[in-house]
Amino acid sequence: MITISTNKADLNIDTIANYSSNESYWANGRSKEIVQESIENSLCFGVYLDSCQIGFARVVTDYTVSAWMMNVFVLPEQQGNSYGKVLIGEIKRHPKLNSVTRRGLNTLDAHELYKQFGFTELKDPSMHMELNCK
After folding, report:
1. Which is nearest to 76 in space by CA: 19, 4, 3, 116?
2. Is residue 134 part of a domain?
3. Domain for residue 128, yes or no?
4. 11-65 residue pLDDT tens
């Protein structure tokens, strides 16, 4: 049975740090300490199959105006079972995010998944900027 929880005490930091550092394109080489600190400062969603963590996402938000979804994953051996869709749906419906007027994310390879939930490409990318500090 799949469950999704925002209880940070349930998170398996080793699973999240291992996937982030060794398998993801967005956090390759990131230390466990940095992963832990990012979790402490975010609204986090753990995905569990029979009490074993198989997925994760975190949202950086002010709970009013903006929310940025990050670090979304389902372990490779559990992909293809729609767990990612369940996770994104749960994030989209989460009551603490109901008043947020603008949500965003970055992805290299999951555009079609996110489009199913109403995400679109930027209407005017020229008005967006970034400062990459590394």
Report:
1. 19
2. no
3. no
4. 999 999 999 999 999 999 999 999 999 999 999 999 999 999 999 999 999 999 9
Tell me, yes or no, whether 132 lies in a domain: no
Side chain identity at residue 123, one-letter code:
K
Q: What Rg, from alpha-carbon coordinates, does the chain have?
A: 15
**Overall number of domains in the chain:** 1
Query: Strand runs (DSSP E) across 6-123, as ranges?
Result: 43-49, 52-61, 66-74, 102-105
Q: Is 2 helix (H, G, I), strand (E, B) or coil?
A: strand
Q: Is the pTM of this model over 0.85?
A: yes
Q: What is the mean pLDDT of the chain?
A: 95
Which tokens belong to 33? 């300490």
Q: Which domain holds residue 8?
A: 2-122
CATH of the domain at 112: 3.40.630.30
